[in-house]
């Protein structure tokens, strides 16, 4: 049932994303604001955040209890609901469409305004070149999709809904915890939870994309093992995509007459790679179920 539950939740979530509805970010934000008040000097403390995520794990314990008393089937609808809330990146379709149209018109100021709110805080006011802007957008988009789909899928299959809530909750803490001083500590924990799944996705990029190109860019030593989520995804995707989709400088040199189409073509290639990679994961999960491993 793991495969069926995840597949149903994934399909429902994709439909909701297309309709730009039911953002889980809002739920996390309201939940975390229960800990808005803190004593002076304790702004960097993480205990309250960890406690709130631990409270969210009650749903996982409830499903485990249903399994223990033989009511396993009653927990499946709850698992689907929780996965739908954990996954999803609503709003990105509209943002990327507007960004691509602005890029095609050559209006980079409008392109920047369309994605400004999605960029890291340190880049929102920066005078980014078109190349740097696009690479920043691609980086944020891939990290967002990884954290809201692949990370949740990995820990759900490995440890059930409880670990999926924990992994997604840590990402939410790193992004939305009301006190910014504590966010770097949550980010370190989120990176630890993402270490295995992001490298698994990196390998999947090679399977779903250009394997020869991926092998040229693949991790080649202990130094690459210390790369964070964003760098791992960018390196792997750059090798797996053809047509210089993540190399704007090289693309502009090779195809200057098609530069106006680069933004849309690059993002389309990235989305296709991510979609194919999720298909690979679903097929791999199906094989694990067939062989009785999951």
From TrEMBL:
Keyword Metal-binding: no
GO molecular function: kinase activity
Keywords: Kinase, Membrane, Transferase, Transmembrane, Transmembrane helix
Transmembrane segments: 45-66, 73-92, 149-171, 192-215, 273-293
UniProt KW Translocase keyword: no
UniProt GO BP: response to antibiotic
InterPro entries hit by this protein: Beta-lactamase_Reg
GO annotations of cellular component type: plasma membrane
Protein name: Histidine kinase
């Amino acid at each position: 049932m793991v495969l069926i539950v995840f597949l149903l939740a994934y399909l429902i979530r994709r439909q909701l994303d297309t309709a730009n509805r039911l953002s889980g970010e809002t739920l996390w934000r309201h939940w975390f604001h229960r800990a808005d008040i803190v004593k002076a000097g304790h702004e960097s403390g993480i205990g309250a955040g960890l406690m709130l995520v631990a409270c969210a794990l009650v749903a996982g314990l409830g499903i485990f209890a249903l399994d223990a008393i033989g009511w396993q089937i009653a927990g499946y609808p709850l698992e689907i609901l929780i996965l739908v809330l954990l996954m999803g990146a609503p709003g990105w379709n509209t943002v990327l469409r507007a960004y691509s149209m602005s890029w095609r018109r050559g209006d980079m100021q409008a392109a920047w305004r369309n994605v400004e709110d999605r960029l890291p805080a340190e880049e929102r006011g920066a005078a980014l070149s078109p190349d740097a802007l696009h690479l920043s957008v691609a980086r944020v988009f891939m990290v967002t999709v990884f954290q809201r789909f692949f990370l949740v899928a990995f820990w759900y299959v490995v440890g059930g809904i409880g670990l999926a809530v924990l992994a997604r909750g840590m990402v939410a803490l790193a992004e939305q915890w009301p006190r910014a001083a504590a966010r770097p500590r949550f980010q370190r924990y989120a990176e630890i939870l993402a270490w295995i799944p992001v490298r698994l996705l990196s390998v999947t990029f090679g399977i779903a994309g250009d394997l020869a190109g991926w092998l040229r860019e693949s991790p080649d030593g202990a130094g690459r093992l210390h790369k964070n989520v964003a760098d791992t995804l960018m390196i792997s995707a750059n090798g797996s995509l053809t047509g210089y989709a993540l190399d704007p400088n090289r693309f502009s040199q090779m195809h200057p007459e098609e530069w106006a189409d680069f933004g849309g073509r690059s993002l389309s290639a990235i989305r296709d790679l991510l979609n194919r990679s999720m298909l690979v994961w679903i097929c791999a999960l199906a094989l694990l179920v067939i062989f009785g491993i999951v």
